[in-house]
Amino acid sequence: MQPLGGGWDELLAPLFADERYLKIREFLKREYATKTVYPDMYDLYNCFRLTPVKDVKCVILGQDPYHEPGQAHGLCFSVKPGVPLPPSLQNIFKEINDDLHITQPQCGDLTKWAQRGVLLLNTTLTVRAHQANSHANCGWAWFTDAVIKLISEHTQNTVFLLWGGNARSKANLIDPHRHLILQCAHPSPLSVYRGFFGCKHFSQTNDYLTAHNKTAIDWDLNH
Question: Is 64 a catalytic residue?
């Protein structure tokens, strides 16, 4: 595996040496060799490569990657340039517009957020084509739970955005005395009106960051 940089190699070294991770790797070797799996293996750890540990201000937890062609590229909720916006992402942009009056971008690539300190972490990092949650039981939950704990332990005054039941179940991994945990319904069309719309998580995130002497996140993808 290519080095991740940004302090992640050192932080995650115990996980990568763990027997449970080695089993995940063996599983993925077989899957990538025999099935269509998303994201591309070279994009698998983009969330770490794009956001150094010391720059993490906010963590958004997704569930598993998009499972249709051309979508997933290692950042939760994000799609590659030129790909139509998935419904959940459209709803995220609607809430940002309502909360911060930022015009919805035409492109759903969230790389700029990652470069601005938003760690876009899925709790399962891979998926078979056309089969949602198909890799949910291969060991990723152990790995990403451990990552969340390490971020909680090694950063200070980070905002964790937990949307939907899967993400909210991770709240107990985060130290609430060191960080801000914001929870609400998932932005999918099935649940968006149960508390995601109107949550104002984006302005709350920036209010917390500035109150703790950190620079607010620029959520505007139009520049």
Answer: yes
